[in-house]
Structures are given as structure tokens and as C-alpha cells.
Amino acid sequence: MKKAGGITRQVCLAAVMAFTLTGCKEKSPLDPDEPVTLTVWHYYNGSQQAAFDALAEKFNDTAGRELGIVVENYSQGSVSDLETAVRDSAAGKVGASSMPDIFSSYADAAYEMEQAGTLADLSKYLDEEELGKYVDSYIEEGRIGADGTLRIFPTAKSTEVMMINRTDWEPFAEAAGIGIEDLRTMEGVTRAAQAYYEWTDGLTPDVQGDGRAFYGRDAVANYFIIGMKQMGVELFEVKDGEVTIHLPREQAKRLWDHYYVPMVKGYFGAYGSFRSDDVKTGDILAYTGSTSSAMYFPGQVETDKDSYAIDYIVAPAPVFEGGEQYAVQQGAGMVVSKSDEKHEYAAVEFLKWFTQADNNLEFGCVSGYLPVQKEACSVAKLDQVIEERQLLVSPKTYDCLTQVFGQGDTLTLYTNKSFEGGSAARKVLEYDLADKAVKDRKDVEDQVRQGKSPKEAWQDFVTEEAFEQWYDSFYDALEQAAGRRG
After folding, report:
1. In whole angstroms, how far apart are CA 285 and each of 142, 301, 313, 337?
2. What would the pLDDT profile of 18-68 be if each residue is shown by its tens digit?
3. How far apart are CA 258 and CA 213, in angstroms?
């Protein structure tokens, strides 16, 4: 009896250890005869929504039927509309819908919900083997629980590329002796943009200062965060939920010199809601934007005078000279509302199915988003899924995905950790310098119309004193947004 008891204790101990090592997964609490219904809120629209809907329906007809899960998904419109709807639900506002079981969320917004205690801990529903299938940095981004537990399930990610109007680029490049390789760095882009402005200005020698902008940028906040990282500085260093802001003058000056200065001089431009809009109107030739924006790159330029078809080039997003090969890691994941075991378990089962390599790539082929499992991040796997599922893929989307996959281990994706005040701090990054640049460029144009030369008009905006004045106010605004100052 004593020996048998010892064996029993050893067996029990082994079972407990196995249970712990597999991430505390338990037997399914679901019953196919009494299916659980999950409500999913997202911000997808158009073709992205259609692709998500199709996959959700496929899940309901296959794995969902076997497991006892029914998914009902609803688009809430834009990202901001979705965030507002979720906050209203969490606060129990009159007229607000009940909290969804799953909803799309960027890290900063998810962090706010986690602080309010409304998100489920996903770690207990995934073992180490399952977690190991996902890109490590995507999982790390989702560990926003105070104890490092997973609260954001990676479902679709993106990074940035450069999109170029090939049709108008080629005659300029030939005339100026510039190649695509010259656009690999921000300094090279600035030089090319100046050359383009001067070249287009020279086409009408009787008109002073009517050169055209070459380049624009979506998501100026990414320019700050990734630009700093390329130069060896972590702008937002987060430890234990507390943020320290690093903004050395030297690196900030380089950011100023290769965004604000060319904007004010007219070498860069920002006119419509997105830079793809500016390519369509012929106001710029190239921009840095998300891989998921590729589908919006226009097929023609439409001006007041004429319209014509254009081709495109997909190139790597530029980095700073001498900098490390960092690119932004972005894109919302899915979070699960804290509820009961059945709904949380079912939610994770759906998200695991959705992020299987083949399913995730099918969604990415339509949306332009990057898949989240390591297995799926290759051109070979992409081609296999396209062939096996007979998918019709936009060449622009395909070229964006293969551009990123082709960079492989030479590119490191980065996003800062979440912190309280992160959303407010990002808004400062996004709008402070960008709005100033647009406003000051208009002032320069007004002065040129009044008879000043372009240099006379912009020279006071690009002095060292102008930079110092902006730098101090910008740093102060960041500190206040992040709650570092009262």
C-alpha cells in the first residue's frame, strides 16, 4: 500500500506538471448540441469586411459546427467609431450595446480596457507549443497584462512600404540620373525630392517657385517612433507600465530636417486625407504607407486638366543613413471580453482557427495584412495558398506582401510597449509637426505669391532657432500627454 501510494503520488505529480507546462489548458467546456454564440466587432469595411465575413461563415460551417461555436460579426465603421462603441458599452452608457465577446483593438486602446479590468487573460487557453507558432514580437506586443499575461490575440499585422508612381517617376529619374536605390534612405528621398521640385520648376521657366512635391508620408507618428529606433533611440521606453521619453536633440534635428524642412520648401507634400489621394491628384509621386493601403494606390492620375493611367513600384520603406533596419509593426489584434469560461474558450478557439496559416493568408490576400504565424510568412507559402484556394489577388497587394517577406531576417519589426497616456502621446507625434508643416508651407506660398523668391519665403522657417523653439514645445507636449508633467 505504501509503494502503491508513492506511485500514485508520482503519477499525480506528473499530471500536474504536464498540466502546468501545457499552459493550463483544460478539457473543452463546449457542447456542440448547445452552441455558444460569439459577437465580434471590427472596423473592416469593403473588401476587407467581405473577406472576414466569408471566413467567419466558413468557420461556422466547419470547425464551429464541430466545436459548438457560432460567430456573428459586425463592422462598427472606422477605428474611432469602434473604440467609442466599446468604451460606451464598457461604461454601460444608456443606449449602448452589450459588450461584444471579441473586438478589434490597437494596443493603446486595449491597454486602457485592460486597466479597467474588462479583458480576458488569454494565456490560460494557449499552451507554449501553440504560442510558439506565432511571430514572437506579435505575441510580445499582446502581453499587456500587469503580470505579463496575453490580452491581445494577434490576428493581422502590417508594416510600411514605399509606393511609387512608376509612370511619372521614370522620365524624371532618367533626366536627373537617380535610381530606385537612391530612395533607400530618408536622406536620399530628401535629395530626390529636391531634385524633382527643381526639375518640375524648370519646366516652366517663366513662373517662379511652381515646382512640385515628390514625396509624402502617412502616419507621421511612425516616422518619429521608427526613425528614432533606426538611429538607436527608443522614444518611449516602458518599464513596469511607466514611460520614459527619450528625445535627444541630435536625432530630433534629423527628423526635423527630413520631414518639416522639405515640407516647408515644397519638396514633400500632404494635401488629401491620405497620401494615396495625393498620388491620384498628381500632387506627389511617392509615399510611405501601410502594406494594407496598397489596394488604395490609384491606377490613374486625375488632374483638372487631364487623366492618365499609371503603373506602380513597391519598394522598401526608407531608413536613415547609417541606421538599423527597423520598420514599424502595426495593426490591430483581437481582444476577448472578460466573461465566463465557455465564451472565453470559444473566442480563443475561433481566433486560433482564423490565424491558421492558410486562413490568415487568405484574409491577407484581400486585406494586405501580414499573417501572424511564422509558417505563413514566406512567398512559397503565399503562392501555395493562392494556388490551392484559387484566390484572385490584386497585384499591388501581392507585391506588398512579397516585398516584406523578401526582406526576411534583414528587417526587424518594432512597436513600443503600451503605457497610460500612450494614445495621447501618439496624437502629439501624429499632428504636432505635421500640422505645423502644412500651416507654414501655406505661409511660404502666400509670400511667394506676393513676390518673394521661394528661398526668401522659407528661410526664416528652417533656422536653428526655429528648430529649437519647436523642439522645446514639442518635448513639453509629449511629456504632458504621457502624464510626465502636471
Report:
1. 36, 10, 11, 44
2. 343 344 456 789 999 999 999 999 999 998 999 999 999 999 999 999 999
3. 14
Q: Are strands 215-217 and 286-290 parallel, antiparallel or unpaired?
A: parallel
218/274 Cα distance (integer angstroms): 6
C-beta neighbour count of 72 within 10 angstroms:
12
CB contact at 8 A, 51 and 82: no
**Stated pTM of the model:** 0.90
What letter would DSSP give residue 325?
-
Burial class (CB in 10 A: 0-12, 13-18, 19+), 6: exposed
User: For 72, phi and psi rounded to 5 degrees?
Assistant: -120, 120
**Phi then psi for 101, rounded to 5 degrees?**
-75, -35
Q: Decide the pairing of beta strands 307-309 and 69-75.
A: unpaired
- Sign of the torsion angle spanned by Cα atoms 115, 120, 125, 126: negative
The CB-side HSE value for 178 (13 A sphere, CA atoms) comes to 21
CA distances from 184 to 255, 264, 286, 450 (A): 16, 22, 13, 37
Q: Which residue bears the cell 534612405?
A: 185
Strand ranges across the sheet with 312-316: 215-217, 286-290, 160-165, 312-316
Q: How far apart are CA 116 and CA 134, in angstroms?
A: 27
At a CB cut-off of 8 Å and minimum separation 6, what does 137 contact? 329, 413, 414, 415
The residue type found at 327 is A
C-alpha of 176 from chain center: 33
Query: How confident is the model over 234-270, as pLDDT tens digits?
Result: 999 999 889 999 999 999 999 999 999 999 999 999 9
Q: How far is CA 255 from CA 122, 229, 299, 340, 436, in A?
A: 38, 12, 31, 48, 14
> Is the separation of the CB atoms in 312 and 163 below 8 Å?
yes
Q: Which three cell numbers stand for residue 359?
A: 486562413
For the chain, the C-alpha Rg in angstroms (whole number) is 25
Per-residue CA distances from 114 to 90, 107, 322, 338 (Å): 11, 10, 39, 10
